[in-house]
Amino acid sequence: MRKDRNLFQGNLNKKNYFEGWYYKQVSTNGKTAISFIPGISLHASDPHCFVQYIIVDETLENDIATGYVRFPVESFVWNDEPFAVKIEDNFFSESLVSVHLESATDIISGNLKLGPLTPIESTVLRPTIMGPFAYIPKMECYHGVTSMNHYLDGSLEINGRIVAFSNGKGYIEKDWGTKFPKNYVWLQSNHFEEPDTSLFFSMAYIPFYVRDFLGFISNIQLNGKEYRFATYNNSKIKLSLPSNDTILVTMENSKAKVKIFGKAEHMGNLQAPVLSGMDKTIKEGVSGTIELELWDKENNTHYHGTGSMAGIEIVDAEDLVM
């Protein structure tokens, strides 16, 4: 495992391996969200790299679009210092997104400057959002959060229409390993009334050598303070699925308690990694809503707010209800 988790963790000689970065951007007016997923799939039957995307534009009648643009493995080029990934004419770093994508249905091009990024707090024992589990070898999927919140500068041309992103908001995370969990939920938003408020949450069944365990990780940044809820810091959790597109989560530890209600909107199809390659179709929304309520036990404060343009995935999650 490399020190900077945003770097490419693999190499082109790995087998049955995937790695991908998730760049989410929301426009200046808060009406358009677009996520790019540059990545590589090194499965023997179909090795390739790709840029996947999902677009939601609330100003258009056809408000959801997704696409998966394939490239040969040789098109995947990376750099460590500074970090960058280049896939043909598409470039992703910690300061710039530059895309020139054409699929069967969409043409997307333009440049967006990013920053400054807002990383999560880390220590030797908690080097990533996964805490001490980041050090355990041969887990099926590792997760990292690169930036909870940052501003954008620039514009994209999407199917002939110029969309402004200056002073819009961005978010970056990544995954790598052999495959995604078979069932999981994922929530993310940094579009609250307060510009520095941001939230990430994920829960899944994790294969762990001879047995599985139910694991969850969550990071909330609010009023200049970070709140971490996770399996590894003895937080408690309750999760329910009131409907096919809603999720209710309550978490608590010695420092704080949080209640999260997420409602997905405008779900689109994305491809996710399984043992055979990028062969699983999942549903994701990038324009949902999240109601967040947090009680800080140490400072005796209470927060209640609503996040928009929320990223939400609920994938075969019935077994996660508890």
Walk me through this protein's architecture.
The protein is mainly beta. The chain has one domain (18-320). Helix content is 0%, strand content 61%. The chain has no helices and 22 strands. The two termini are 33 Å apart.
Secondary-structure topology with pairs:
Layout: E1 18-26, E2 32-41, E3 48-57, E4 64-71, E5 76-79, E6 84-87, E7 90-93, E8 96-102, E9 107-114, E10 141-158, E11 161-164, E12 169-177, E13 184-189, E14 198-208, E15 211-222, E16 225-230, E17 236-243, E18 246-252, E19 256-263, E20 268-274, E21 277-296, E22 301-315
Antiparallel strand pairs: 1-2, 1-12, 2-3, 3-4, 5-6, 6-7, 7-8, 8-9, 9-10, 10-11, 10-12, 13-14, 13-22, 14-15, 15-16, 17-18, 18-19, 19-21, 20-21, 21-22
Provide a short characterization of the protein structure:
By secondary structure, this protein is mainly β.
**Total of DSSP H or I helical runs spanning 4+ residues:** 0
Number of strands: 22
- What is the average per-residue confidence, as pLDDT, rounded to a whole number? 95
Distance between the termini: 33 Å
The rough form would be described as globular
Query: Strand portion, in percent?
Result: over 45%
Q: What string gives the helices and strands in order?
A: EEEEEEEEEEEEEEEEEEEEEE
Q: What is the chains' assembly state?
A: single chain
C-alpha-based Rg, rounded: 19 Å
